[in-house]
Amino acid sequence: MTAGTQATVARLLEDLTGPQREAVQHTDGPLLILAGPGSGKTRVVTRRAAHLACTVATPEQVLAVAFTNKAAREMQQRIDHLGVGRGMTACTFHAFCARLLRLYQARAGLPPGFTIIDQDDRRKLLRKAVEGCELSLANFPPASVEPAISKAKNELLSAERFADRDLDWQDRTVARIYLCYEKLLRAMAALDFDDLLMRAAVLLRDDEQVRAELEDRFRYVLVDEYQDTNAAQYTVGRLLTRQRRNLCATGDPDQSIYGWRGANLENILTFERDYPEARVVRLEQNYRSTRRILAAADSLIAGNLRRKAKTLWTENVEGPAVRIVEVETGEDEADGLARGIAERIREGTGADRIAVFYRTNALSRAVEEALMREGIRYQVARGVEFYNRKEIRDILAYLRVLVNPADEIALLRVINTPPRGIGPTTVQRLVDLATAERRSLLELIGDGEAVRTLGRSAGRVTAFCEVLHGLRPALEMPAPQALQFVLSQSGLYALYVAEPSGEEAPRANLDELISAASVFQRDRPHASVLDWLEYAALVSDVDSVRTDAGMVTLMTLHAAKGLEFDAVFIIGVEEGLLPFRRNDEDGFDEEEERRLCFVGMTRARRWLTLSRARYRVIRGVTERTVRSPFLNELTTAGVEWTEQPARESSTRQPAAGGRLPADIAEWTIGTVVRHPRHGMGQVLALERVARHTHVRVRFEDGATRAWALEFAELQRVDFDELD
DNA sequence: AATATTCCCGTTTTT
DNA sequence: CGGGAATATT
After folding, report:
1. Residues A118, A146, A224, A593: which is the catalytic one?
2. Are A314 and A644 in contact (CB under 8 A)?
3. Beta-strand (E) ranges in A505-572?
4. What pTM was estimated for this model as a whole?
5. Residue A457 CB closer than 7 angstroms to strand B?
6. A553-577, pLDDT tens digit by residue?
7. Which ranges of A438-500 would DSSP assign to H, the alpha helix?
8. DSSP H helical segments within A169-264, as ranges?
């Protein structure tokens, strides 16, 4: 070891605690790092990667796999920052598998230029598959078949093998749909997200040579967020490290929040059984949160049974109380939140150090409005929404057709976008003809003779074909130029940008897409349009969240994993919302919901507020809510409950001797009420009489009384006030 | 064929 | 409430 290397190694081990240092210095053999929130895991992982790269391996031999693009990018940046380890691979599982499959495309039995389709396209295809099986879409909604097929793929069950098993009628039907769906995928040379993992896993499993090559290339493999791996990912990790067994898994069972996507908590819980010789390092000291926040989070997660017991501790200060705020309505909640944030900012916390988390994206709206009213700048992490915009999908579809002529979904999308007079009838005739002659649509469109049979529309189809042909040069261009070129030559520019009466948004979105492509191309100068498409298929909007932009960040609890903020507000902590419950749902997992809440809470460094509204507008209807059981589980002393008064509102009249509802929606049949003289009762009916609403109540004494709503001396009694 | 309208659906989280 | 698909209209 040279003196320079020695100095570097010393620097990598600087300011680490005992367990951290142990993990960083571990080189050969399996390693499990059980890392609690805020325990410096990323630091350990990146230092370890760098340490490997300057002691026992070259950077090229180290592979770090993360779960999200955001995590992968952060890892890459921090490794780069350490100055050693440039040339290391850090990417998501899906990206890694996609790259693998491109590299060994022929050996994997895949067509060149295969398309990666997203959930939307997958739904469309699934729909087609259901129809192809002559089943009713009502009985087999694609959205309900999807999880079954996804699960099968996660378990490396091909359609054939799936169909081979002993199945009940329901599953046999799913098997038929699965087979048909696979046929459609093959026909359009496409893979869905699950295929990427499955095909890569199968390739590694069945192709000795490929595996040997990869094992030789990647000698040290690091899998972050191991608790979120599904069976296919688990297999990839295992197969990649079969000879050397240099698999380092890091994670925290208490932060497993992707069970709904097939993640198997068992993978991390049984790591020690899979790798009996594994070294296990526990990182339990928290450097992030105050004692009170940590204690509250710990008291919550203690309610879970399926976990590895762990003792979180910190030397940090006790800090301000964790606040639980209960308010009347979702609007009150948002208002109070905005005021709370404004106060934080006034007291000196930077806006970019503040975040609002919620269970579902739908909750962001009220918050956005309130923040706008307060004049607070914010950014919303919107998942895949950006890539679902019509204009974005349109332009990507053009590129897809160019790259993969078999991509029929993309072709059908662009054939009449912008409108060029090729209507459903013509399209149907083309599709039928293609099916009958067993030719691809694109081929057919380029066949003058076949097109001529279309009669009047023939000219338009030919014109479209020429447009496509004219777009071909885009394939040779850098991504941003290719996008520009397609935009102008396809007619999309005229449709979305030049259109004087058009909206602003499409233009801005297209601009954003092009600048994203520029950034991509700048970082990867040799990347092709195909690479860009692959990248675009595997990213989400969450990946572009900046934490240095002077803005408050709004995001889902899922997107919050791996981040930290000085002040965190979690809203909508209500039964059914957090924990989230669907009426019929079988897959409900309360422990996972609890972990989700735990993840959110442990993002906070100093201030943590959880709030809940008694009434919330859900799908346009005001509904009563019930306090989340999770709030009741925060039993530590450092938690402070607050009742926030309803905001002043012109619609809310002061009640005579009681609290009057803001509107009738607050009073539903069955609402429990208290009357100053008659005692407790329950609302029997609400009826409109002339310009008044009458409320009819049955009291404990058995009597039924009725008043006009504005004169009733009734006070609503909330569930949680009853004991 | 394109646009306007209605209606009906479902309704989480992300690669 | 809001998006998408089916239906009506121009």
Report:
1. A224
2. no
3. 552-556, 565-570
4. 0.85
5. yes
6. 999 999 898 899 999 999 999 998 9
7. 441-445, 448-452, 458-471, 479-490, 492
8. 169-187, 193-206, 208-217, 231-240
